[in-house]
Amino acid sequence: MSASPHSFHIPVMGTGFTLDTPLRVARYGISSVISLVDDVIVEQARKFHCHKNGEPYEAITASQPDARARRITAYLNLVDRLVQQQVRDLKTAPFEKGSDIGRYFELLPASPLKQAYEQMLTVTDPQEQKRLQDDLRQQVTAGSIDVNIMTKLDVDHYRNGTKLPPEFADGMAALRGFAQSTLVGSAMVFSAGINQRLYTYAAQFDDFFPGPQGESKKRIVLKVSDYRSALVQGKFLAKRGLWVSEFRVESGLNCGGHAFAAECNLVGPVLEQFKRNRAELSESLFNIYCKALAGLGRPVPSQAAKFRVTVQGGIGTTEEDSFLLHYYQVDGTGWGTPFMMVPEVTNVDPVHLERLTNAKWDDIYLSQASPLGVPFWNLRTSASEEQRRERIAAGKPGSPCPKKFCALNSEFSEKPICVASREYITQKLAHLPQEGLTEEQMAFVREEVLAKSCICHDLGGAITLVQNAGGNGTGKALPALCCGPNIRYFNRIFALEEMISHIYGRLSLIANSERPHMFVEEMRLNLDYLKDEIKRFTHRISNRPSSFFENFKQGLQEGIVYYQDLTKQFLEDQREKFLEDLKRLAQEIDCIGLPKAC
Fold first, then answer.
1. Over residues 72-98, mean pLDDT
2. How many Å apart are CA 243 and CA 286, to the nearest integer?
3. Strands, E assignment, 273-371
4. What is the pLDDT of residues 497-514, one digit of tens each?
């Protein structure tokens, strides 16, 4: 796979926001990630883009054999074909104002390739200019068309009351759909922790193994929040002859969508650990990998395999981006939430773009909306949230559960159902009086039960509106938005050129000059999370051990010390405010009273 000419990628956002982002940006060398959660909107998107591009379309209905995997394969093959054609067209376009090939080079960061382009523009001799242009055309590289599976979403399926074999579970079918696609050089991004049967299943597909030249057709990327997780998951895959080509470090809380904050893994100290242990991690995994390949009778690489380390979550300024790249020596950064304000790149319908633009500070909040029981960044004014509140007011809380991607709870039934469904919520609320709760606890639990939302359906609402695809029998599209807290500092709609220029420091789009540094923001979010967990424990809703609170507070205090020392690496004009913010946080952390075990 050719290296991207850009230093950033666009991570997966929701189920539909980046579903066709590669069709918008891959030809400009920008890598992005498609969600494979919702095969219904995947099929809708395939129909839309087939009709738009004059491609033949034959529906793959849900009743057909292996429909989920086949829908995903068909869509990815379409995206692959269309992007390849876009790149061919771009390479033959004239170098003139407004052309795609001119835009490709104008978007680039400062680099030898950008310098070569700018030099070409100054040449007046036609023959020399053509020679330089031909050379530039040869160096055009498409961005990677990557895909994401949230490993927790691996719901088993039933037919006539009988559970189907594991390979028909949601995650397994999605993996198969990607593995059987024509994509080459693309990555499967696994997020949300290890799924042993899913990882083991990946070893059934040749495309994940190195070929005669040592390169695999498809790569594996792990999204992780700490070094230990990278080591454990990397070893598990290496033992099966599977190499992790990238560890994508994401802030547990300072991100969009689901927030995994349980261990207080602050991104700075985590990246420090990767920086210090990178060579050791590489050697450890490579030895296991080679042994596994030899045991499988597959070719063993003659030289050490490499992996990338990238970081995403809460990055908002070119100074932050540059510091991550240079001090921590990461290979790239991910910019997600700000791109929700760039309609050229992501699927956000006009109504919700306006709501994002006008969102007040508290409209972006860490909610209990996710049926997975994981905190979830949400837009309070979204149509999805409005509908959830209306259903409660009408005495009919919960969703009809049209897609069942989160049907994982068997508290009231042998066959799992979703905790955001009307079926579950009705039964749970009726059962609460039997659970021996105090009135205070009852109110607390009731609020959390009613907070659950049908995000597996609603996160695809925006793309169905943008593409005018309707509900396709699964209900009216009422979008949920999973923007992270960073959206608070981007308060208007932007062009692609503007956002990329912001990333590379050619202009600034930050709306509030008082925006805290991403490290400070993450510390604040973790402190708020600790306070909420203490509140839950005090109400005896949480069964966390007292050691959790002690370790979490200690992690925050150690983070303060780490970042105070890190400021030696900062530019002087950034240092003073950062230290002041840290001092205030340190005082607040020290004042936190920890609960005692019951």
1. 97
2. 8
3. 308-312, 332-334, 364-367
4. 999 999 999 999 998 888
